[in-house]
Amino acid sequence: MIKINKMKGKFTISMLIAGLSFLSSAAQTPAAWTLQQCINYAIAHNVTVRQSAVAASQSELEVNTNKWTRLPNLSGSASQNWSWGRAASPVDNSYSNTNSSNTSFSLSSSVPLFTGFRIPNQYELSKLNFKAALADLQKAKDDLSINVASGYLQTLLNKELCKVAEEQVLLSQQQLDRLIRMEQVGKSSQAEVAEARATVEQNKLSAVQSDNNYKLAKLDLSQLLELSTPEGFEIVQPDVDPKFVKLTPPDEIYQVALAQKPGILAAKYRLEGSEKSLKIAKAAYYPELSLGMGLSTNYYTMKGINSSGFGSQLNNNLNKYIGFSLNIPIFDRFSTRNSIRNAKMQQLNYSLQLENTKKTLYKEIQQAWYNALASENQYNSSVSALDAAKASFQLMREKYENGKATAVEYDESQVKLKKADSDLIQAKYDFLFRSKILDFYNGNIIR
Prior knowledge:
10 helices; alpha+beta; 4-stranded antiparallel sheet; 65% helix
């Protein structure tokens, strides 16, 4: 939790914006991007994150403004007036046509002594709003990190599916070449060659579609990173073999998430701030006491009248004052009453928002946990299915080469192998993404 005080090392949004600017200016476009590089670059350049940073900076300024509200203010004024026409003479109080001028100077100051506890509550409210703004900023970064991780893994998935499609083209091309050689010696028919050639073309079409899917996934990821073009953008192929560990129960993850997830923290800060808003509204029922003080002087001239010099008049006309001002509210047309009612309704609204945020978080954790468990089971099943498909294809290939199976049976076995391979790849990346989401709710950083 971030504390706002005078301690050394106090977090400021200006530091955060400077850090984001440094990341933006210092980021070198790598030859191939890791997931962490993608996330860092996206956070530094994403408009929503930067807007959240600006909003937090504004909240920090509000804290600083309310911090100094108790200090006395000081203002100065000066005026110069000219008048002509009939006016009373300062000598004998008779009226005559004359010209005069008046120069005046003043300094004034006031200090709030008692405001019904409105000032300290405003300061506390601004600090809570600042904490909520920081939590909103962190939530924006977390949401972006999840989206980037999803896009990154989707790109890796489509890249591997491209490899599978290319391998299928190679296998079918090898089969076509074999049948052409067999046809030349009379051991294969033209129909079998034509069917094998059609299979090659169909696999080539699938490879083109897989390549298009990969390019589109890379485009989506580059747009998440705010890159101007996906050209030259490549990602690192990490060691992504799934590592299965016992999944933490969802209720335990939920307790961890309640204490640290920014969405929950922001809702808590706003609910706590609504109590301060209620006290601020009630402050209008209290009298307000303030201390005022000031200095004033003036210089006066009138045509036909000998007057003292400028300095002498300023000194002789110097006036000092100090006094207290008490404002007692009696009737404000029910404005304060309605403000208090509105603050109470706002407090209830924030309470409901916190409750809804908690329920939504629990549902998300439950879904993430069951999705991770299902994807783990699906991956294990896909491994077994691929092993069986490989063994079946090997037997079918031997039978086909020995003339004991037809080309149709061979193609069907090859299609099953391709599907099993693709299913395993999809299950692997689905599990990796689900496990990362579960780790994220458990307090771990996506990397």
